[in-house]
Amino acid sequence: MLNSARQPLMTGHWCRSIATMLVSGMSVQQVFSTIKAQDEHNRALVDACNKAIVDVNQGLSFTAVVARYRFFDGYHIEQLKIAELAGKLPLTLIHIAHRLERKNVRNQKLRAQLKFSQAVIVIGLLVNIILAVVKEAGFLPEVLAFLVVIISTKLIFCALDSDIFYFLAQAWNGRILQKVTILKRLFEYYWYLLLVLQLEAGIDPAQAVANLRDLLPSSAFRTSVRMCQRHLEQGKTMVLSLSQAHLVLTPELKQVLVIGEKSGRLVSSLKHHLDLQQQYLDLKTTEFYEWLPRLYYVVAISLMIGFVL
After folding, report:
1. For residues 297 and 156, what is the distance between their CA atoms, to the nearest angstrom?
2. Distance CA 64, CA 59 (A)
3. How many CB atoms are closer than 10 A to CB 43?
4. Domain spans of the chain?
5. Torsion sign (Cα): 214, 261, 269, 187
6. 0.85 exceeded by pTM
7. Which fold has domain 12-95?
8. Rounded to an integer, what distance in angstroms lies between the CA atom of residue 166 and that of residue 187?
C-alpha cells in the first residue's frame, strides 16, 4: 500500500548516484554506506541506511530494503522490482531520477509563484487590519480571510507533495475515476506501464497482473485485479481478462489491446500507446502548473473580498 503521509527519502541526485555506483561494481552494502557518509546531516536518511545495511547483510534484496524504509514511493518501488528481475536496475534509477527532477523543478516554480501571490494578499489584509485598529473598527472578517489564505496555501503545498496513487485510489473507491477522462488516462498510463515492463521481462501475464494488485490502496481495485488474474489463469485472452475486470477504461486502449493481441505485438503496441499517453499527460501537467497560480490568486482575492464585504 502506498503511503501518502511521509515523503520518500530519495532525490533525483541520489538516484543517479546509486545508478553510477551499481554500474561501477559497488555492492549494495557499499552503496548505502556511501549515501550515509555523504549526507550525514540528513538524520532520517542516515538511520534508514543503517537499517538497510543490516537487512542487506541478512540477505534482503535492494528493492526489498528500499521498500521497507521508504526510500522510494510505491510506484517507483514497483518499477525497481521489475528492473531488478530484468537486470536493468541502473537504467531504471536514471529514469526515476529524471522524473523526480522534473517534478521538483515544477513544484519549486509553482511554490514561488504561490508564495508571491500569498504575500501580496496577506499584506493587503494586514493593512486593512491595521486601518481597522486605528479606526477602532472590527476586523474579524480580515482575520478570517487571512487564515483562509494561509490554510488554503498550505493545503495546496501538501497536495503537491502527496502521492498521486492515493488520489487515484480515492477516485476508484468513489467510482469517480471511470467518469473523468484525465483520471482514466493517468491510471492507464501508470498501471499499464508497469504491466508492460513485466511482460518485457518475461513474467507470466497472470503473475504480472497479480504483482500490481497493491498499487492502489483500494479494495475495489484489488477485487478487479484478482478477477483479471483468475481469467488469465483460466486461459482467457489478455483483452478479455482486462475488459471483464474493468481495467480497460478508454476505448483507445481497448483498440490497442485488440490489435496488439491479434498481431502478436501486444507489448510493442502498448508501448507506443503509452508514449502517446505520456505526451498527453505532460501537456496537461504543464497546463495545470500554469493555471493553478492564476486560479489561486482569483479564489484568494474573491474570498478576501467576500469576508471584507
Report:
1. 12
2. 10
3. 9
4. 12-95, 106-309
5. negative
6. no
7. Receptor-associated Protein (1.20.81)
8. 12
